[in-house]
Amino acid sequence: MTTMINSRFPSPSRRTVLMAAGASLVAAPWVANAQGADTVRIGFPTPLTGPFAAEARDQVRSAELAVKLINDKGGVAGRKVELLVRDDKLNAGEAATRTLELIEKDKAHAIVGALSSAVQLAVNEVTRARGVIYVSISQSDTINEVKDFSRFTFHEALNPHMTTAAVAKHTFKRGSKVAYLVADYAYGHEMLRGFKRAQAALGAESVGEILHPFGAPDYSTFMPRLRAMRPDILCIANFGRDQANSIKQAVDFGMNRNARIVVPVLLHNQRLAIGPDAFAGVVGGANYYWGLEQSIPSAKAFNDAFRAAHGGAVPTDYGAYGFTGVYSLLLAMQAAGGTDTDKVVAALEELKYDVAKGAQSYRKCDHQSMQSVLVLESKKRADMKGDADLFNVLATEPASETMLRTCSELGFPA
Amino acid sequence: MDAELIAMQLFSGVALGAILIMVALGLSIIFGMLGVVNFAHGALFMVGAYAGLWVASLTGSFWWGLLIAPLAIGAFGMAIEFLLIRPLYKRSVDDPLLLTFGLGYVLVEAVRIVFGSDGIPFETPALLSGVADLGIGFFPVYRLFVVGVVAAVLVLLWLFLEKTKYGLIVRAGARDPLIMRVLGVDIGRVWLMVFGLGIGLTALGGVLAAPMRNVSPEMGALVLAEAFVVTVIGGMGSLIGAVVAGLLVGVAVSMTALFAPEMATIVMFALMALVLLVRPQGLFGRAVAGH
């Protein structure tokens, strides 16, 4: 780097560069201290590298947008908000270390983030031990349960229970024969458990389950057995590139001729990555789809702000988690008049917010965000009106406690 | 569990094995002839897929991508050998290993910068899409095509190495480069060509895999591991070893997928460990003593 500067510019400018660099080094601790008094700092660990990088990037973009919108309106009690993004590398240990640093070194007032069921539990371990608020924006059922819960823990994302209940309600019928292809880790296991519970209630039956290794690139060897199960519904419960690869290969094997492919969460980025043909007709749940703007004013406002910030691009499902998670926390901080943890916790528990997808609020016992669940169907190429026109909204299950496990079921005292 | 299902599962295994052979071939050839352990192998597989995608989108035809990308990436491989690896031949065997390891990272990051970290769709060519009825079950036409291409490549490679004068030089050069030099053969040129060939095969594997998998910057990571497993089981540097081991691993993975699907990835590593215990040089490897 220095040699490049050296060759292009005369030496005075190089000296200036060095002086500036030196000055900023000396000034850095002072700047940090000054910030300590003024800004509201939100730590944001997310897997910027690894197989969920695309989703993580969208989370960051939308979280930054939430911070910008709040800052434009004067911040929190006159203080500017700052988002401290850290790469957790989709690794629980890495996430715990980054979170600890955010709390101890960067003096973060609260943590929002994570994009894997296992990683968020590691973040939650750290935050609850330190008494710092954590708003999780990745799906998990266990984080609602009394074992992992703390009063500092909030879960903004959907949980597998509500996602699978909504998807099953609109796809499973009495007598449906369902075959499951499931990623062999927490996310897949929780989704499978949710689907089987819904299946029992709806009178559908399971004709077989196959657990596949996480991150498998080839699914061909599972296809003969899945076909032999003769399902009406092939339910594929995995995430990220696993979803893209397994759906594509299932369609290559003609599995969608006799069976409908159903997934717990139909991922915006994976549909983009694989193209419309393999995904056509696949049904799955979602927390958000930009097409909601036709009926929901807050979705329109979110999309417009995002389009303005990102050259006309629309926000994605996981992006919206970054937005609603950070925005709701900042609204609660505004209501609490600052960053005092007890006051912010109380404000979050009382908060009624509608920032992107209609009415949301945190349930008192487990701090699960009660919100609508969308059931989406991937469009055929011929039906798409533009590159971003990916899905039909088949149904919107409204926010309701009936979609959640009861507080006593989760282990909370009545 | 009926016979048809088991037959189908066996066939899936063989087809998967064909893909594994394609992936391992380049790695094995380069090690066998040059003694270089190419850790950039997975990254070059990925670069091959992107190059195929790029050419296909420019020309509007998968076939041009399949033809041009391996040639172009093969030439790129020759440039890597000439500019980066050649200066390291007289040094420790670790040096080319470290170099290619770093090169792998550089390539992945470069692709991220140029094409983004999202995957890119690569549609199966219309001519080869659809499913074929094999009598015992259904199988994607495209995968049958891949098996055919791999078989053709193997036959051509065998003819080249065993039946041509140039193939003879290559084989002799792998045994004893010094004698070849004494005989007046420009061994540097042979190595340049072999490296290019190995990388071209890897890139061909990438283009062939693209319509079956998500094309993403990380798609080469597991491929590198698979290629190593196959070459280690078959014997580092043995062509026939790579073929036998590829099929063996494919069938082992497929049969495991039938009976214990969650073990389907780990089984290839278990197989490798077993082979290393019983026959450390691999099934078809030459014993390394004094090499």
Describe, in plain words, how this protein is organized in 3D:
- The complex is a heterodimer of chains A (414) and B (291).
- Chain A has 414 residues and is of the alpha/beta class.
- Helix content of chain A is 44%, strand content 18%.
- Chain A contains 14 helices and 15 strands.
- Chain A is globular, with a radius of gyration of 23 Å.
- Chain B is mainly alpha-helical and 291 residues long.
- Chain B has a single domain, classed as ABC transporter involved in vitamin B12 uptake, BtuC (Orthogonal Bundle).
- Chain B has eleven helices and two strands.
- Chain B has helices spanning 3-34, 41-59, 62-85, 94-115, 141-163, 165-175, 177-182, 187-209, 220-234, 239-259, 266-278, and strands at 131-133, 138-140.
- Chain B has a two-stranded antiparallel sheet with strand order 1-2.
- In chain B, helix 2 (41-59) runs antiparallel to helix 3 (62-85) and helix 5 crosses helix 6.
- The radius of gyration of chain B is 19 Å and the shape is globular.
- The interface between A and B is large, with 37 and 42 residues.
Summarize it.
The complex is a heterodimer of chains A (414) and B (291). With 414 residues, chain A is α/β, with parallel strands linked by helices.
Characterize the largest beta sheet of chain B: strand count, sense, and whether it forms a barrel: 2 strands, antiparallel
| Structure summary, number of beta strands of chain B | 2
Could you tell me how far the N terminus lies from the C terminus of chain A, measured between alpha carbons in angstroms? Answer: 63 Å
* Biggest beta sheet summary of chain A: 7 strands, mixed
SSE sequence of chain B, one letter per element:
HHHHEEHHHHHHH
Average pLDDT metric of chain A = 90
The residue fraction in helices of chain A comes out at: 40-55%
The overall number of domains of chain A is 3
Please give the CATH class of the largest domain in chain A.
Alpha Beta
Widest beta sheet: strand line-up of chain A: 7-6-8-9-10-14-15
Q: Which residue ranges of chain B are poorly predicted, with pLDDT under 50 across at least 5 consecutive positions? A: none
* Shape verdict of chain B: globular
Total of DSSP H or I helical runs spanning 4+ residues of chain B: 11
- The name of the CATH topology of the largest domain in chain A is Rossmann fold
CATH topology name of chain B, in short, is ABC transporter involved in vitamin B12 uptake, BtuC
How helix-rich are the residues of chain B, as a percent range?
A: over 70%
Radius of gyration of chain B, in angstroms, nearest whole number: 19 Å
Report strand order across the widest sheet of chain B: 1-2
Return the CATH class of chain B: Mainly Alpha
